[in-house]
């Protein structure tokens, strides 16, 4: 009897795992189709320029303070944490070079993209989700406006365009934060600090890092819209959509980051 | 017997009127759940038809099929002599400008003011009004029809349930549709506000000479508004007639709606 129950539990757990794996791949397929529809609608008329500008302003403006504060703290913390180790080896003069490379190449884009995902993907997921459950998306379709073009295309495009600008801004603030610590602890002038920064930075550091932020922004906008647009189960579904938008887009960021670093390694020889 | 004669007379009178909407053998299933099993309907110009049915009987599915929000499995839907199911997206959008849809929960756009909500349908259908440069007179006329001109710059969150429903009605009216579809227009409203909405539906029909298809559970609404009623049970037209005919029916299933 015990053995039969044990077998049944095993079979049940295999079935559940199979269903979970299946639903994961189904979701990947649906997301791919959603992305395909995005590109199809992106290049077809009518273009929603006014709504795109409104979304760019909303998404960029909403994240400005968050990105600024995050960038500033990244700069402060990295410098404070690294300085004692470099001091031990008498290599404090390498501080600006080390901080700038780590911030521009990796830490800045990834951390700012993650905070952006937390702010924007959840916001888009919740907004579109509530529009879906309260039939606002249906109302839009009935009134002759393509809701996918008006709601999804504009938001994904705005996130894709705004994140690189925010990352550049965040990186700059992070470097300034790092300079403040260097100035306080090591009496380094503004000119000297940024001379060292620009001497060490090459196109191979800045261009790939900036290009990958377009992909980060696209992924965050796409996943947020996907989760919200197909939201089900009423108000509970809205919460789930917001939550899974953040989780899924954050996961996707790391996958894209790995691919970006891999490709950069081939073309730029890091 | 007299009422049957009345229905027949009414049907004969309708023959002279223009057929606005015709549904034939409409079927829709979700997996093994057969929601519509051959539903039929004819709606004539200026006519009000009420459809009643239990929750989950397929009323909302049927009404969503009429505006292309859902595709039926089979059957035909003709709206003003145009076969809805054969239309491309552009033609469908054109046809939609002739159909007003009042959603159950009003479905006002949260992020827009009342004015912007009303202007939204005009984005794609401005050409219907010729060389339209200023939308304000149209917005004010629609809001005036529902008695809410003062709410022009309010946000939906600042409106009561009844006001939201009236603004939603104004939004359906702005394109001057020939057919209005009401999805439970009085649900979630108190009896007094419900009565106001019902009166408004009557006055709108008189003013704009629209044909209306009303889905409701509200017997009072059905009594006041309907010229004909259809009971949708098991996905088919189970019973059809005037309010009084159905109310006095001896059929158990029909009686259950009027208890």
TrEMBL record, chain A:
It holds the Pfam family MlaE. Keywords: Membrane, Transmembrane, Transmembrane helix, Transport. One of its GO terms (molecular function) is phospholipid transporter activity. It comes from the Bacteria. InterPro entries: ABC_MlaE_roteobac, Permease_MalE. It is a multi-pass membrane protein. GO terms for cellular component: ATP-binding cassette (ABC) transporter complex. It is found in: Membrane. The chain crosses the membrane at residues 64-82, 94-117, 156-181, 201-226, 238-263. Belongs to the MlaE permease family. This is ABC transporter permease protein. It comes from Algibacter mikhailovii.
TrEMBL record, chain B:
Gene3D superfamilies: P-loop containing nucleotide triphosphate hydrolases. Keywords: ATP-binding, Nucleotide-binding, Transport. Coiled coil: none annotated. One of its GO terms (molecular function) is ATP hydrolysis activity. Transmembrane segments: none annotated. Residues 21-259 form the ABC transporter domain. SMART domains: AAA (SM00382). Pfam families: ABC_tran. This is ABC transporter ATP-binding protein. It comes from Algibacter mikhailovii.
